[in-house]
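dumping the sequnces here before i forget
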Amino acid sequence: MLVLTRKKGQKLIINDNIEVTILETRGDTVKIGISAPKHVSIFREEVYEEIKKANKQAIQEGSLSEISSAININDSKKDFTSEYLNKLQSISTKINKPDK
Amino acid sequence: MKINTSRFGEVEVDENLIFDFIEPILGYENLSKFILLDHTPDSPFKWLQSAEDPNVAFPVTFPAFFGIDYQFVIPEEKAKKLELTNAENLLSFNITCVPQGSPQNATVNLVGPIVVNMDNKKSMQLVLTNVNFSTRHKLFNKPLPTPEKPENVLS
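..and the predicted 3d for all of it:
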């Protein structure tokens, strides 16, 4: 990892087109400004971590038979979304086996 | 071709129905081939099953079915990567977390939708910047009717 020391108001240039400015430091908080082309995605790391966590948990806990027996599909917004369901079905692989 | 799954055993799959994740499902960067398993016809839930790891299968659904107002704009460069020419061909669904024993507390991840180009099956998990979305949006606003199970004990 490249480590640089910067002062308030100073900048970093990455790859000719990304500009990182140290706007403010207060205690252990640093405020950073980033100018980058539109196609560059910038996220707080926590967002990624949260999605990773949610993904992982979905696998561990997933139990669809329970939820399927608990919802009344006919009560839901079936008309509104049936076209979408059909689309989904068109790219799904059908199976005819019990859930283990 | 045949795909091995820990949940359903061996499944015969049409090769045209294998999704190619050109950007990964976060946390599963080593897996790029997935299929959508249709277990119960008509159900709003499906399994996004890895074709490479039998143990990896995500329950997925789509929020509109549950009356959740959910819309997002796919960034232009992502659409380009998916080679998406017609918005009609974009399909999106969301990974769902169903806690064991309490399906009424099921949540859906609205921050990281899965998008698929139906034409070429190129897929990715997007990361949306909309701050109003949650990774754990409750699927049900009102409590579910209790399934008829007399032996059910409140926990």
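The mean pLDDT of chain A is 81.
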